[in-house]
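Researcher: We're teaching a course module on how sequence relates to structure. For the next exercise, students receive a sequence and then see the predicted structure as tokens, so they can try to spot secondary structure elements on their own. Here is the exercise chain.
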Amino acid sequence: MEKVKYLILGAGAAGLSFANYLKQNGEDSFLILEKEKEAGGLCRSADVDGAPLDIGGGHFLDVRRPGVNRFLFGFMPEEEWNKYERDSRISFAGGYIGHPFEANIWQMDSGRQKEYLDSIAEAGCNRGEKMPEEFVDWIYWKLGKRIAEDYMLPYNEKMFGANLNILGTYWLNKLPNVSYEETRRSCEEKRAYGKQPGHAQFYYPKKYGFGELWRRMQEAVEERFVPDSAVKKLDALRHRVYCQDGEAYEGEKIVTTVPWAEWEEIPGMPKELWQDIKGLKHSATQIEYFPERLDTLAHWIYYPKREISYHRILVRHNFCPGANGYWTETNKERVEPDQGRFRYMNEFAYPLNTCDKPRIMERLLGWAETMGIYGLGRWGEHEHYNSDLVVELAMKLAGELMG
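Model: And here is the predicted structure for the students to work with:
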């Protein structure tokens, strides 16, 4: 049984960043176990129709964390990236408006603008009402009846599932915050105001898909990378991990980036925590490629209309030079019959921010840390993190554990 100081489970953005940070700071007693043949996780790319396609959905490198970008440019230099001003739109009323919705109703005709402004003015947050605890009520409270029913509720049902009230409201600070006054001002001055969403500016590779970055990070730690190693049993007392192929590994510290729901057994874990893990929810998303070029400059487009199966598209030819077509993202529950196009199903796409998730994860991660086990990244922490934040958290945890 191979024994190392750091046993890293999963070679997505979190695991690769943690491992490479260790190596760059003089630590080589580590192993990365990965169930696939190649690293990258949700950030992997595949060659489809003569160009890269990101099989985990839309992933881009945000510009907002310069320390993260300096670290990543060490593997894929900045001159190999194009920098873009985000152009994201919403399909609405037979046309398109900019995203976020409330910052761009100025792009509608004057009659519709007034209807939406009046509706926002009547929203509970603008009338001094207490913030509700359930997701659906919060949408009405924050944005008003019109935006709730015309955009936010149908879009989120398509993305996360029909029962939105399993979601809490604690995570909604992630959404772009645009006040009524800012919305009114945008209509007067005909330009967007308010906090912009993530990736307002972003990098994307000039010649490759996003997965190329993580492939190079895999190469940098190739001698410590173990592919085709799906973990099944985590013995918390012995600090051992058992894989599907029968191999076993031991680490003084175990850093897990895999979904907690994937474990078949965790000896040493209290029964109540094991039951809690069963309560963690997630959604699965299918990526499907369409070869047609679209007459738009948008990088991606949101589709709230319930009659359309997918919730958004990524317009590949507008950010991936030399490529054609676009790909759709569709919740597994809404996938339509196969028409022979390239498809890829991500069984673990988005952690769901259910009402009881904060309680579950606080107890779970607290217990795990007392056992020398550390949850990291989108699945280790069960948080809807973008890749740049995952890298930052991995660097921080590696630094802390190394002292």
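Model: If you want an answer key for the exercise: The CA atoms of residues 40 and 214 lie 5 Å apart. The two ends are 27 Å apart (CA to CA).
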